[in-house]
Amino acid sequence: MSEQRSGFRTFLIVWVGQLISVTGSTLTGFGLAIWVYLETDSVTLLAVLTLAASVPGMAATPFAGPLVDRMDRRRVMLLADSAAGLATMAAALLYFTGNLEVWHIYPIAAIGSTANAFQEPAYLASVPLLVPKAHIGRANGMIQLGPAIGTIAAPALAGVLVLIAGIGAVLLVDMVTFVVAVATLLTVRIPRPAPSAEASHADEPLLRGFARAWRYLRERPGLFGFLLMAAVLNFILGFANVLYLPLLLSFSNEAAAGGIMSIAGVGMLVGSIVMSAWGGPKRRVPGMLAFMAVSGLAVSLTGIRESVPVVAASVFLLMATVAIVNGTSQALWHVKISPDMQGRVFSVRRLLAQFAAPISYLLAGPLADSVFEPALADGGALAVSVGSLIGTGPGRGIGFIFVLMGIATVVVALATYAQPHIRNLEYELPDMIGDAVPAAA
């Protein structure tokens, strides 16, 4: 019992540091985006910043997972946090010496993206080494509090800081959060996972280690199906990331749209708190799929009616259920994957998720502008049929996309439950972690 308390105490220390760091990084991401747009008045350059903050991390992911499994996970987190912190420090020095230019932001964002590709799997793969199996679900709920708090606080705070004190203030805040993250990691020790059959291949080339994780999943049909389901879900819900704002602005103003986005963050926060206190459903697969179906209904509700209260309620419900789905899913992966394979497996998951969402980003605009908006304009092809239910005019085509997204999410949940290997995953695959955890040295 003392070892379990020691491990969970270590997790809490790491969690506090990473919670603060994630909040600071989210703040900087919004702040830099605002600064670049104000300096250039260019959507194209803003899009380039988005690419700089994502593509390098995708490229680094196949190397990150094998390194996480090969090295001490605390050391990987220290190096990643330090690299991102030094990049932020460089930006701050350039700003305060009057030398910061827009092009400097792109390599700085690329360094942060690359660092995160190493930090995220190392952090997640450390959880089952510190937290007893009975509390894995709660720990994953706690981990999601960082993005939830960032979603609520970062946009408003970044905007205020940039307008009042300049981007330098945002960078200084982020530097402080990185110092906190590194300081907390320096005070703890994270044990190494016990070696399994896969450990004998720990020294193989990094890309071969990534391929080994792919084969590891292919040999476990339930987990592989679970992975494909998550990728499909990311693709479906990826449309919302692009279309939420145009949908909201089609029948409300900027202030209302901003308020609804903040409500989304509150929903995610509430869902994360519920997951932290509850730990998730005992039957993780059916429970997660049930919450996924509810999230699909919430997405459809968003597009049915032009009403700020209705959309606000549906967005709150969506994000609350998504937090529970994500926490339950992550807990399942923690329990069913051998700890010394988790760095590699989590990198495979991360890369597949990152590839799925951008495809929907690219499709969202053309589908909305060229297909669904014209079809639901007054006199459009769907004006009499679908339009009689959800209305016609500006924004109704996008609303119909949300209805279809929600229906597709429910269908994916039902289709996933119909697959025996996935439905019975918790029984077909043994748990790879025990009730006790290694003592944190």
Features:
441 residues, mainly alpha, Growth Hormone, Chain: A, 80% helix, globular
Written overview of the protein:
The protein is mainly α and 441 residues long. It folds into two domains: 1-189, Up-down Bundle (Growth Hormone, Chain: A), CATH 1.20.1250.20; 204-430, MFS general substrate transporter like domains (Growth Hormone, Chain: A), CATH 1.20.1250.20. Helices cover 80% and strands 0% of the residues. The chain contains 18 helices and no strands. The protein has helices at residues 2-40, 43-52, 55-70, 73-96, 102-130, 136-143, 145-165, 167-186, 206-218, 221-249, 254-278, 284-304, 308-336, 342-375, 387-390, 396-417, 420-423, 425-428. It is globular and about 65 Å long.
List the helices and strands and how they pair.
Elements: H1 2-40, H2 43-52, H3 55-70, H4 73-96, H5 102-130, H6 136-143, H7 145-165, H8 167-186, H9 206-218, H10 221-249, H11 254-278, H12 284-304, H13 308-336, H14 342-375, H15 387-390, H16 396-417, H17 420-423, H18 425-428
Helix pairs in contact: 1-2, 1-5, 1-7, 1-8, 3-5, 3-9, 3-14, 4-5, 4-8, 5-14, 6-11, 6-13, 7-8, 7-11, 9-14, 10-14, 10-16, 11-13, 12-13, 12-16, 14-16
